[in-house]
Design a protein that fits this description.
- This protein is mainly alpha-helical.
- 73% of the residues lie in helices and 5% in strands.
- It contains 15 helices and four strands.
- The chain has helices at residues 2-16, 19-39, 54-62, 72-83, 86-96, 105-118, 139-160, 166-194, 207-244, 252-274, 280-305, 316-390, 412-437, 444-451, 465-500, and strands spanning 44-52, 119-123, 129-136, 395-399.
- The chain has a four-stranded antiparallel beta sheet.
- The two termini are 52 Å apart.
Length: 501
Amino acid sequence: MEDLVRLITIHLRGMWRFRWWGLTLAWVVGVVGGIVVYGIPDKYESSARVEVDTKSLLTPYLSGTAIVDLNADQRVMMVGKTMISRPRVERLIDMSDLGLGATTPAQHEALIATVTKSLQIRGSGRDGLYFLTYTDTKPERAQRMVREAVELFVKEGQERTAPTNVAPFLEQQIRQYEEKLAESESRLKDFRLKYMYLFDDAGGRDVVGQVGKLNEDLSRAQLESSEARQARDALQAQLAGSQRGGTPTVPAAVMEIEGRITAVRRQLDELRQRYTDQHPDVSGAQRILDELVAQKKEALEVWEKNPTLSLSDANPVLVQMKLEADAKVASMEARVAEYQKRLARLSDLVRQQPEVDSEREQLNRDYDIIKSQYENLVKKREQYSVGSDAATVTFRLIDPPSLPTRPSAPNRLLLMPLVGLAALGVGAAFTFLISQLKPSFIDAHGLREELGLPVLGVVSMLSTPERQRRRIQGLLSFGGGVVGFVMVMAAATLLVNFLQG
């Protein structure tokens, strides 16, 4: 704490050395500031008290929002933003001939901004009553702008109450689009019923995948049909040999090997559909097939050398086997024919699917467009039904615009003292700056801390009567300068207030 007090004392004693510089600057700033404050143009504010039906006015802007009620400040703000809009300001400028001096777009935009800022709506403390004010450098023009703004708002309120044919037109358009929407829905339903085998609830079936699967089923059925025919032909040959009585037929061992060969071939075809020829399962099945073919060839060679070793007499069992083989062949051929018919139909569907997709997209697009237009018309009808209440907005003049006799701004009675205080602050800051630029040592302690050397002694200055008299004169002169500055600023404030009226 002692160090802080000592530091403040050092700065104050340093500033005291340049007190006259600071006082001079304070006088200069005070005089210049007073002249500037006095030269600020006067602004006059004209006001008129009006009555506005805020409930009807704000309903179109608050409908559909979560705002249930507004306090006084929020209601005033909303009324101001609603009524003081750019189109109204432009019409007001045209009515008052203010735009005659604005020859460029930049000047026109600046004029719009100035009028928008000057024209304000303020609350009066009562619901529905507001003050319409305008601020200008000329009192007559401020009064004229308020009067023309009131006339504009009253005229627009009367125009809103005029009858309109919007509602019947909207109803007619809505009925027409309802019919179009029903027709579009009917066309879309008929299309989905016609091509329901192509599209399902998930958005469409994989017809190409079905064709691939059907090709696999057809190949498998053709293979099984071929095997059944071969077995049937073998039984037919065996039965024919039995009926000729003594004609050699193929032995049962060869038939057994043939059946195993057929089974292995079927298994090998299924493996090749899933794997390559280098797969171990495929290689093993191929090896078994080669061994069975070799066994069949060897058995046939033995039988051809001695055909009397195996003879079959015709018997009912063989005939029954023949009949079963014929039935199996017929069944497999029917399956192959059915698969071929399905494949042909799906192939036709694959060829016509792009055209069907295009037609579906067109129908969906037409339906979406008609539905969107119908919803927009319904929304406009709802907005019109809400806005019809706002069409009865009342804007009534209670007190006519006043002609201001005293300026409302600037408040020189407040600005002049502020200028005086600012001038004194600038002077004090200036003395502090000079004291930092031209420092000095006021005691031995500061000198010892700054130089880091021991101080052997201090020579004090003796105060003589002459020096004491000059010191008192200096204090009185400086105090007189400060008091004179304060009195001059106070007198200037009173004078400005008197001149302002």
